Amino acid sequence: MIATLSGAKAGSLGFTVSGDVTKQDYAVLTPAVEAAVAEYGSVRLLLDMTDFHWEKVSAWGDDVNFGKQLHNNVTRMALVGNKNWERHLAKLAQPFYAQEVQFFENLDDAWAWINSHENA
Whole-structure pTM over 0.90, yes or no? Predict the structure, then answer.
């Protein structure tokens, strides 16, 4: 499931990614990111994956399309989690989803990095 997170400032978005992500979850994520890109030209994105399990095979196409379509417009992506494999996922995500990706264990630290003025 993907749900909107509070704490975003202009040009940034945050989402909680929990359980198993499905094709329908991209109907929440993609339009929100596209709208922010249309308004600001680019977006900084935070994904809290603390309760994430995995992505259903049926969602893989939407996942790939999200990356292909929006990679150049996502200037920073913060992945928040508490598992070692999530840390590795952050390293793998950069070439496909954002210009710069960082892993955080703390949501407040991730928001600070995403919302910092150095990103603008």
Answer: no
Q: Which amino acid is at 62?
A: D
**In the chain, how many domains are there?**
1
- List, as one string, the DSSP characters of 66-115: HHHHHGGGEEEEEEE-SSHHHHHHHHHHHHHH-SSEEEES-HHHHHHHHH
CATH number of the domain encompassing residue 31: 3.40.50.10600
Which residues contact residue 14 at a Cβ distance below 8 angstroms, ignoring those fewer than 6 apart? Answer: 4, 5, 6, 7, 8, 45, 46, 47, 48, 111, 114
Q: Which domain holds residue 93?
A: 2-119
Tens-place pLDDT, residues 44-81: 989 898 887 777 776 776 666 776 777 788 899 899 99
